Amino acid sequence: MSPRSPAVNEELRRRSRERILQAAVELVGERGYENTTLGDIADRAGTARGLVSYYFPGKRQLLQSAVHRLMHLTLEEALEREPHTEDGRERLARAIDAILGLARDRPRLMRTHMAGILQAEGFVQCPEQQRLAFLLRDTMTRYGTPDVDTDYPLLRALLMGAVVAVLLPGAPMPLPRLRAELFQRYGLDWEQGMPPDGDPPDGMQPRVVRQSSKSSK
């Protein structure tokens, strides 16, 4: 029996890593962070406990990579859903709705993720975070921003702040209000993206600001 090629080994490692990331998202969403062990994640992923530690130095780093993967996949699906569009304003609206939707649909998971980022370890630089960053930067470029190196970090910060506001224990902000504020800031129409039912809160109407031709390329 001939040995596996390097390409086959690399594909097996990729699949194994993705099973671990998916298991972490599922278990923390179901049980919470403290009630999920690396052994639990290994069992759910169908892999050895030592392999989890081989890929990730600790549970917090694993969870950040897992959530960044979930965010990347959710954002990618929203941007590429039918009807497909290259319009930068529509793509930005979809991106905002995708990230806010995760806060609405997976509150335990996203609250745990944000708490980890705000602790000492901060952002984990991993392939999943890099793919998420690429999609958000590309969205800002298509939107037509003249300075993506400044405007992408600002968008990221605004989205993080909105997620925290939605999830704030005891005093959460309504998601439609936060959405309306972000849409106003970027001159998006309320009907773009995946609008919630009803009118904009308190009759707020996003001002329509037409971008340069770059936004539709």
Question: Concise description?
Answer:
This protein is an all-alpha fold.
Please tell me about this protein's structure.
The chain is mainly α and 217 residues long. The protein has nine helices and no strands. The longest helix has 26 residues, at 6-31. It is globular, with a radius of gyration of 19 Å. The relative contact order is 0.11. Mean pLDDT is 90; it is low at 208-217.
Set down the secondary structure blueprint:
Blueprint: H1 6-31, H2 38-45, H3 49-55, H4 59-80, H5 88-105, H6 107-118, H7 127-143, H8 148-167, H9 175-185
Helix pairs in contact: 1-2, 1-4, 1-6, 2-3, 4-5, 4-6, 4-7, 5-6, 5-7, 5-8, 5-9, 6-8, 7-8, 8-9
Oligomer: single chain
Largest sheet, if any? none
Helix content: 55-70%
Strand percentage lies at under 5%
Q: From the alpha-carbon coordinates, what is the Rg to the nearest angstrom? A: 19 Å
Keyphrases for this structure?
217 residues, mainly alpha, 9 helices, globular, disordered C terminus
